[in-house]
Design goal:
The complex is a heterotrimer of chains A (204), B (178) and C (226). Chain A has 204 residues and is of the alpha+beta class. Chain A is built from five helices and nine strands, in the order αααααβββββββββ. Chain B has 178 residues and is mainly alpha-helical. Chain B is globular and about 55 Å long. Helices cover 66% and strands 0% of the residues of chain C. In chain C, 42% of the residues are buried. The chains are: A alpha+beta (204), B mainly alpha (178), C mainly alpha (226). At the A-B interface, α2 and α3 of A face α2, α3, α5, α6 and α8 of B.
Chain lengths: 204, 178, 226
């Protein structure tokens, strides 16, 4: 680094020296920061769900739920999805009971894997965008089923926190398509229609 | 006590571990924010917002990333949005300030702590140039780190740093003869 | 059998999982992660930041505004439109807050803002809040907004949903109601008629303002930002 500095114009070098001096910081600002932090809910780990997606684990799925999954039945949160606990355990029945009317969802780190499905046989690529991924089309691309007799069925699992989410499908990068099987969201302000999913905090 | 270990502790519920992380980085971040934004009030707001956001999104931090780089990404972002809010407000005043700066009796005073002078000089730089200059020479980051942090390519960053230095130098040329 | 089918699902899911591993905001698209709002031009950005400030001052969540801006970027809307959309979100949330009161959760605010945008009045919202019995308004409001959008006359929808709510209908009830009505509308039934028919199928869950079995009202306060 000193070599790089030496190659600088002497005036600029002086300026850098001055700029590197520490800045006097008001100690109360830091104190206020920590106070604000202590009022925040504890942050949650996000990446455990992705482990699940890559490595099948032993699950405690009920036979009905696992058959539903195998049959590719659509569950856009209505089935409650699967509960993924912080330690990677999967379960449906064992999720901690949460009254749906309770505004204080406990910090159990329970994201639910919600499967989004769109039937679009003519599409070249489809992704789901929404408030959970900053509406980024590259975040959750969907894949078309490869099994015979079910081509054109695009799907993806997305971990969602319990609560209300707004989303849409993007077909071939340009067409914004609401989910035909979900409640319609109010006008998006951009000339398209979106969909709503409410993810439950409790199991089926 | 490594940063990654402290992050794990925070995710396990230990808020004091976050206080330790703040202790480790606050002054450095404060220096960047003040140099970047030019005044303490805005810098404090940006710092507050940055650390809060870091805390909230700690779950997204991946251990393979350097914590300081991850934190700085958030800080740079916050400084940019703070600046965006300010710009229109300040547009009226820049012209007057430029008159002040070019006043003939204004001399750089290196013997004292003429921090105000440093700030004024830096403030004359275009924000993106200033940002690159500060990250390179004050934060002493490598171009690779800066690239990951800003999402801008290395050669573009080198160009920005060079232009910043050229501007600063030509400014010196202009006033030194006064 | 369940392990096998799970493995199959996980396998096909893993084909999409690789980009997902990198995460919604990471380096798949580098600029996206650092500062997605930087794609806005300066004056748009400035206006939006002002709206964030206004929201903060009003004690409203800012992430719905940010999300609306990001949505506009993805949908390639021009700056003016994005600002208008974000401003609308802010105003709707503010109106929703004044109708629902300080105890409303962020989801309820969002759902209420949506209902306001399809013509439900703040009085109607306040009426729902009054006969609350410890339940969240999110579900009924989402269903209400959807049905109006699908063609159920506004008054019919509002009145029906309110009555069900008052009679103690649960989230499951509202969900079932929505599915039934949607199915009927798709098969050609008049939307208003469909709603009235399906609503009759939902039994009354108890007298209108019955106190909750558990006794004390839980403290209501705002959900923290996700």
């Amino acid at each position: 680094m000193t070599d790089e500095l030496n190659s600088l114009d002497p005036y600029v070098r002086e300026l850098v020296g001055e700029a590197r001096r520490p800045v006097v910081v008001d100690p109360s600002a830091r104190h206020r920061l920590m106070e604000a932090i202590r009022l925040e809910p504890a942050p949650r780990r996000r990446s455990r769900v992705l482990d699940w997606l890559l490595e099948p684990r032993h699950s405690s799925l009920s036979p009905v739920a696992s058959m539903a999954l195998a049959a590719g039945l659509v569950g856009i949160g209505i089935l409650g999805g699967l509960a993924i606990h912080r330690d990677g355990r999967l379960s449906t029945e064992q999720a901690p009971p949460v009254g749906v009317g309770n505004p204080h969802l406990p910090d159990s780190g329970t994201a639910r894997a919600i499967r989004f499905v769109l039937i679009a046989p003519q599409a070249a690529r489809v992704s789901v965008v929404g408030d959970f991924n900053d509406w980024d089309p590259s975040a959750n691309p969907m894949s078309a089923q490869r099994e015979p007799g079910s081509s054109g069925v695009w799907s993806v699992y997305v971990p969602l926190q319990p609560g209300l989410h707004t989303y849409s499908f993007v077909v071939d990068g340009t067409h914004f398509v609401p989910d035909p099987a979900a409640p319609i969201a109010p006008d998006d302000g951009y000339g398209h229609r979106s969909s709503v999913v409410i993810v439950r905090g409790s199991s089926l | 006590m490594s940063d990654a270990a402290d992050v794990q502790r925070v995710l396990n519920g230990d808020v004091d571990a976050f206080a330790r992380l703040v202790d480790r980085y606050y002054e450095r971040c404060a220096r960047f924010a003040v140099r970047m934004l030019g005044n303490r009030d805005d810098a404090e707001d940006a710092l507050q917002a940055a650390f809060l956001r870091a805390y909230r999104s700690l779950g997204k931090y991946q251990e393979r990333d350097k914590f300081s780089a991850w934190l700085y990404r958030i800080l740079v972002n916050q400084c940019r949005s703070m600046a965006a809010r300010r710009n229109q407000r300040e547009r009226v005043f820049v012209r007057e300030e430029a008159v002040l700066l070019n006043a003939p009796d204004r001399r750089p005073n290196w013997t004292g702590e003429d921090e105000e002078f440093v700030q004024r000089v830096l403030a004359e730089l275009d924000p993106l140039l200033r940002e690159a200059f500060l990250l390179k020479y004050v934060e002493e980051m490598s171009y690779e780190e800066m690239s990951t942090l800003t999402g801008v390519g290395v050669s573009a960053l080198k160009m920005r740093v060079k232009r910043a230095c050229d501007r600063l130098r030509s400014r010196w040329e202009r006033i030194k003869d006064d | 059998m369940s392990a096998l089918s799970l493995r199959r699902v996980a396998w096909s899911a893993s084909l999409v999982a690789l980009p997902v591993v990198v995460g919604a905001q990471d380096s798949v698209v580098p600029n996206r992660g650092i500062d997605p709002l930087s794609r806005l031009n300066e004056s748009t950005r400035y206006s939006i930041e002002l709206l964030f400030d206004s929201a903060k001052v009003a004690g409203l969540p800012t992430w719905p505004l940010e999300s609306k801006a990001l949505e506009g970027i993805t949908k390639r809307a021009d700056g003016r439109r994005i600002v208008a959309a974000v401003r609308l979100v802010f105003r709707s949330l503010r109106e929703a807050r004044s109708a629902l009161g300080p105890g409303a959760t962020n989801d309820e605010l969002t759902a209420a803002a949506g209902a306001l945008s399809v013509g439900i009045t703040t009085d109607e919202l306040a009426r729902l809040v009054k006969s609350r019995h410890e339940k969240q308004l999110t579900y009924p409001l989402v269903v209400l907004s959807d049905l109006i959008t699908r063609g159920v006359p506004r008054d019919t929808a509002s009145q029906t949903i309110f009555q069900l709510w008052q009679r103690g209908a649960s989230d499951d009830d509202f969900q079932g109601l929505w599915r039934g009505v949607e199915r009927d509308i798709v098969s050609g039934t008049d939307p208003g008629v469909a709603l009235l028919n399906r609503a009759r199928e939902i039994p009354s869950r108890g007298p209108p303002t019955a106190p909750p079995a558990s006794g004390a009202r839980p403290e209501r306060s705002e959900n923290p930002n996700p």
